[in-house]
């Protein structure tokens, strides 16, 4: 029998065979060299989810919070290392089948996608905190449901005018609702940007608004002189005096919340049948404006107008032909019919 000298380096063939065997067993070299985590140290979902909730942004918590609540209801006393990928997939399917039924629902794909993302976020922190090794992350093995194409589209002028008419003539504060609609039509901003707009974010001289958008992004967006004047007048009339005060406010002087948007679009859908059938809401205004800009001024200007930072390799060229704020201001001037101080 041949005795192998332990001081001799293994051959390339033996190393390859060892790697192949480890791969077939689902084991990495890191798993062999790292010390195993004691099961008594692995927290339960009831213990760990509140820790993660305190670590994520308010936006992330708003999206995933209801899904983490469901996980706690079903698996609260289980440790993070107990559920298998198959069990997680089963809970994802259960979430799809038992989702809240909405008129614009599309088979539960969105609910399933969010549940998978909520699990992945949870286990991402569990790996970082070394409660489980990365190779044992069950959420990483569960595929997300395929995202369906959006049904939203840019609206023609006639339909936009109908929405504006309803905003101008219904509700307990038509002036505020009309200002909200104009804000989104001009800036193509998301709802969160309007809710966070502060008095200090308005540059009256250059007609610019500093938008706070998702991902912690701040960017200057051109606005028409008319919109800027209306925002400043609205702020003054409703008691927005401090630089950090929120601009858009209800009649009682309190900053608006998402409930203002809910009420606005409920009224629009109540008065306009096509808006009700298609479940039109704020993001349709973003689609409308960006469609106009892309058709008239091209993709690079539309991307800058939207505040998009593309990571798609198919659009790498836009890195070199990125549009500037002057071109965005020019597109805005064409959209509103008003001259802008930064337009070229």
UniProtKB/TrEMBL annotation:
<dbReference type="InterPro" id="IPR050090">
    <property type="entry name" value="Tyrosine_recombinase_XerCD"/>
</dbReference>
<dbReference type="InterPro" id="IPR010998">
    <property type="entry name" value="Integrase_recombinase_N"/>
</dbReference>
<dbReference type="GO" id="GO:0003677">
    <property type="term" value="F:DNA binding"/>
</dbReference>
<dbReference type="Pfam" id="PF00589">
    <property type="entry name" value="Phage_integrase"/>
</dbReference>
<protein>
    <submittedName>
        <fullName>Integrase</fullName>
    </submittedName>
</protein>
<dbReference type="InterPro" id="IPR002104">
    <property type="entry name" value="Integrase_catalytic"/>
</dbReference>
<comment type="similarity">
    <text>Belongs to the 'phage' integrase family.</text>
</comment>
<keyword id="KW-0233">DNA recombination</keyword>
<dbReference type="GO" id="GO:0006310">
    <property type="term" value="P:DNA recombination"/>
</dbReference>
<keyword id="KW-0238">DNA-binding</keyword>
<feature type="domain" description="Tyr recombinase">
    <location>
        <begin position="150"/>
        <end position="333"/>
    </location>
</feature>
<dbReference type="InterPro" id="IPR011010">
    <property type="entry name" value="DNA_brk_join_enz"/>
</dbReference>
<dbReference type="GO" id="GO:0015074">
    <property type="term" value="P:DNA integration"/>
</dbReference>
<dbReference type="InterPro" id="IPR013762">
    <property type="entry name" value="Integrase-like_cat_sf"/>
</dbReference>
